[in-house]
Amino acid sequence: MAAIFQGVGAAAALPSSPSYSFDSNKSVFSPRRSFSVRKGASFAVVRSDGTVNLNPKDRRAQLLISNAVATKADSAAASSSSKPGHELLLFEALLEGLEEEMERDPHVCVMGEDVGHYGGSYKVTKGLAKKFGDLRVLDTPIAENSFTGMGIGAAMTGLRPVVEGMNMGFLLLAFNQISNNCGMLHYTSGGQFTIPIVIRGPGGVGRQLGAEHSQRLESYFQSIPGIQMVACSTPYNAKGLMKAAIRSENPVILFEHVLLYNLKERIPDEDYICNLEEAEMVRPGEHVTILTYSRMRYHVMQAAKTLVNKGYDPEVIDIRSLKPFDLFTIGNSVKKTHRVLIVEECMRTGGIGASLTAAITENFNDYLDAPIMCLSSQDVPTPYAGTLEEVTVVQPAQIVTAVEQLCQ
Amino acid sequence: MALSYLRSSSSRSANLLRPLSSAASLRRPISTDTTPITIETSVPFTSHQCEAPSRSVETNPSELLTFFRDMALMRRMEIAADSLYKAKLIRGFCHLYDGQEAVAVGMEAAITKKDCIITAYRDHCTFVGRGGTLLEVFAELMGRQAGCSKGKGGSMHFYKKDSNFYGGHGIVGAQVPLGCGLAFAQKYSKDESVTFALYGDGAANQGQLFEALNISALWDLPAILVCENNHYGMGTAEWRAAKSPAYYKRGDYVPGLKVDGMDALAVKQACKFAKEHALKNGPIILEMDTYRYHGHSMSDPGSTYRTRDEISGVRQERDPIERVRKLVLSHDLATEKELKDIEKEVRKEVDNAIAQAKESPMPEPSELFSNVYAKGLGAESFGADRKEVRATLA
After folding, report:
1. Which residues in chain A touch residue B173, judged by CB atoms under 8 angstroms apart?
2. Contact present, A99 and A149 (Cβ < 8 Å)
3. Quick check: helix, strand or coil at residue A256?
4. A270 an active-site residue?
5. Where does residue A314 rank: exposed (0-12), middle (13-18), buried (19+ CB within 10 A)?
6. How far apart are the first and last CA of chain B?
7. CB neighbours of A395 closer than 8 A, spacing ≥ 6?
8. pTM of the prediction?
């Protein structure tokens, strides 16, 4: 089930402000998974200072091997039979991405609780301390506010720390550092300092982890100006996003999910990254656009199976970029299907879905045939009891019902 | 002393026919025996900015037997929780306290239920010490209605308001400012009680702890900060996380006391001392030198960052229950058989509680929306279909 998605037209086609940096004026083939740049294709990059750079002589971009993913339309079928690449779990993909970047750039270091000798509480940093030493893989005391602040301070001088929150919820202790320093220093210093930090960790509702360990920080952080937020959902995009986040000059918060670490997938052997600002077309369709990210992607795909049996053709997009939204991809989808369903794990009030609803309504209201539907988690602390926790988050059955209602 | 003479004389008569139980019947019933005994702690207290209390602790047979029984109960409860977790009846995070029972039990012996205790996520035994029942513990761990938080909190969120147990907190160190707040309220209402805010050696490096300590010292609050130093913050040993692992000295201007946390009597003495101090002079830090046999939680094997020899070494030399057992036997307060009977009884109690907890039902779906607010604000929450499931957040 391959998707050929042509990014066409100039920025003018998109009735939104071109303040994001995205690749337009390019034709890309997007096989099953994600975008990659074809060698020799010209593409424009809109920089944050407003200049547009055609065919950037970015050394790093030219180092990318563009045929990392097959460019044939039925690559999905081909890859499973010819078996290029290697199979691994999502946490191993993150580890691979991190390790490759640490080898490539000596400025990259990791700091967090139990990331070094213990190997990371979810094994994302396993073996790194042995390989790179204690100064590059730092076991911090339990002092999130301080070590996040220290990471930002180090980033101001040019180091590229990857700060791990053992659980995203713990980063609430570092909210001030993330908001005021990480997000705003580039602006308040008039552009003198860049903060190339990556803040990552698992979040989301797990398996009965209790209220304090089931938080969705993306809804709290989304207002902070100056940061980028991405959420990975497959081993392929986990590795790609990790590498892109480390290479980015902007502070990036990479949201992983506690329940997705053991997903298995076959990924390419070659070096590749995923664009931080792009959404991923998971399943093209005609009837309704379903926007989702992280774990809910799997609930949506499960519902999609049922929907297909019932005769619907949903288009599923994993938005991946939580800040800024890839309104280009999303907009093109809305123009095609005219119906939008957002499925998220954030709470109803003030979540990513709420912002996305507003953004789509503002920009694409004329293309909508029905009001946007947003399925979110309940506005309650996540209870411990398993049956209650299940009702807290969106289940596939509810997605099916929602699509049926939307398509009436 | 007369009792021991009596016993040895009967054994000297080489009367193998006389069973031990008849010797026991000559003794006063141990459960109510309050003849004072003075016992010296094996390790002296080390103090910082204050005078250490005496090593001689006053106790009595009844208390020692209570120590034994309570610690055996806690130990059995934690081991049972381990099995339940492996059987997937308990899910999520489960942090076990076995090895550290002496802290909970010794503390309770020195204070009243008017004093407040607040701790972190390793709270099952502290809850039981405060009067929580085994049914409440197991039901909460299994997410049932009979749990102390109605199944909505889980392992890390045990609370008992009527005996001033304030939890039960998942975020490391966050309970310490809360504890100082409890102390503030106690000073405000002038009720001569104190607060024990427990935290671990990992949490000792949290900034909020020092902020709260500074304010407590400034305002003379009856706050006692108790560092349960089990030497490991999950996988990080204390020497790798703290420049100065002398946690009792970290208060600088606040006095501190280092206590052998595996000795229930030493803990009792220290807490008694701390309570008197806090009521007069403001905050004090107690460092309990203790050890946990399990890993940090059920998902941590506990052997990647420490050797099995270390664990078994501590178990052999410093186990709190064995220590009390030896005391009881050496002072002839009970026989081996009696102690074993207590352990059997305790085991049965735990098994009964588990069986009862298993019968408790899961919470009703409507419980999802209750207790979000104290008084319903009329805020409505819809199920995903926005039609059928409609609840007002209560």
Report:
1. 142
2. no
3. strand
4. no
5. buried
6. 63
7. A299, B384
8. 0.83
